[in-house]
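Q: What structure does this chain adopt?
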Amino acid sequence: MEDKIVVKNLSKIFGHNPEKGLDALKKGMSKKEVLQKYNQKVGVYDVSFSVKNSEIFVLMGLSGSGKSTLQRLINRLHEPTNGEIIIDGTDITRLGKKELRKFRQKHFCGMVFQNFAILPHLTVQENVEFGLELQGIDKEKRAEKALEVINLVGLEGNENSYPSELSGGMQQRVGLARGLAVDADILLMDEAFSALDPIIRRQMQDELLMIQDRMQKTIIFVTHDLDEAFRLGNRIAIMNDGAIVQIGTAEEIISKPASDYVRAFVEDMDRSAILTAAAVMQPVEDTAFPADGPRTILRKIRKKGLTGILVTNTRKELQGYIRAVELAEYINKNKDKEDIPLNDDLVHKAEGVNEDTSLSEIINIYSDHEYGPIPVVDKNNKLKGVIVKGSVIAALSESGKNDNNAQELLEEV
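A:
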């Protein structure tokens, strides 16, 4: 997937003559020292990252970490002190005001804020049309586009309502619809769902993911909520003190925190809800084929020290599972025969999970799982790996927080 946005060595110092503060930071002075000595506030310092096309990239951090400042730098609502912001190959830090205005109209949907920022004297449709009107789109076309996105965000029938007549969740949908109506590539969302109650917030997160599945925007989403970041982000950048301290998927961050700060940040997360089969699966030691004889299969099992073996065809498509004990008993009963056919009753059904299956689902599967390891398969049922109970326990043991099913699994072994 191609990079949509590339940020290089980006810094923002607020105050008079910010270059002095920037130079002091380069020489090792802290943010606090720069503020005390030069009366300059460091918003962002020496940040580099890229955002892929059609990715939801989350900027995550506590208040004052620099996440909102960084987002505003990306469309130059804040002017950078230093660095490059390259969007579709154009470094927008080099654009003049007129060029920047045109570039924003083409590439940015605008911003969706925590406080909705919708105009109280305009109806839903008029609010959604507002950005299109600023672009000079004629009345008929902007009305058509507005109604399209109003339906998309679930506000059909409310076109003529005013903001005061809408719930908080509906008002936020208006803000989202206004951003989407512009039909540009990049959508910036700053704490967009923070003012909503938990149930509505979850619904809006679901709504955003469904809309993204259809529209494939490049979204930069700012939040201080770790659960929201992990739920929405294809990748998450965790910020502290104006710098990015780690970038990765939710799974990468929770399983391999880059620092003590990140580790402390994620320590209360339920690992079983974040980690997936891909994180805990192991390579397949060996497989049996339907054409193998029972003695050949038992030899494979014993050679690898297994309690059973998965059966695949030559295309690695999962066929089932054979238990060593049952196979050995079958061979012993037929020991006088030179050629023993493989009895179909020995091949037990083996349901595979995909690599995106969460650890919490896998724990639940184990309670009903009768035979051997849990196979991991791709969309074509081809075997990718196996999950053994020990690898699940190892993943869970790195966190003190486990759900009841996970605790039962730990106690069972």
